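hiii, so i know i said id send this last week but things got crazy w the move. better late than never?? heres the sequnce for the chain we talked about at the cafe, plus the structure i predicted for it. fair warning i was half asleep when i ran it
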Amino acid sequence: MKRLRDLPSTIPVFPLSGALLLPRGRLPLHVFEPRYLAMIEDAIKTDDRLIGMVQPHKTPSGDDVLHSIGCVGRITSFTETDDGRYMVSLTGVSRFRIKSEEDGFTPYRRATVSWDDFAADMGKPETDAALDRAGLIALLERYFAAEELDTDWDAMQSAEDELLINSLSMLCPLSPEDKQALLEAPSLASRRETLVTLLEFAMHVGKTDEVRQ
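okay and structure toks below
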């Protein structure tokens, strides 16, 4: 098993708004831009096959910058289509903090990163002792109905705490900033609390909009 100190200090980064990868989670990617095709091709030639997912955002002045915290994933499957695109699956390894971006000759962005704040990401899956599963699922039923979404409710009932909370964080159609808040939550319990708050707020805003219409 890879340890924190074994992770590289420089990684390729894939800025993708609204895409959330969490440790031990799985994120499918459809890659077609030439610079990111090059990134995938370079990554699969390495032993680690690591790519850092990070969300871009705009500063008040309108500049495009990267959030300081992202999550690195390992390419665990990839398929090349007939027209040269890649269908990739990333499995989350650990979050990271960007220290600086590297100037170089690659067409894609690379960053020097620190792993120091996220040692727990490479440990055992987290549990959430305060999780009210019945209450969470009741909230999800209302939210999914409002968003016209469907899911496997039996699987949700039996899923381990981390799988349940992280999968919902990754899959629910929340804003990029909401996704970033879920990524930066320091523990599984705090991520669940954040998720519940965001879902309740989303439903409240939806009801307000309906009344205004």
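btw The chain has a mean pLDDT of 90. thought thatd interest u
miss u guys!!
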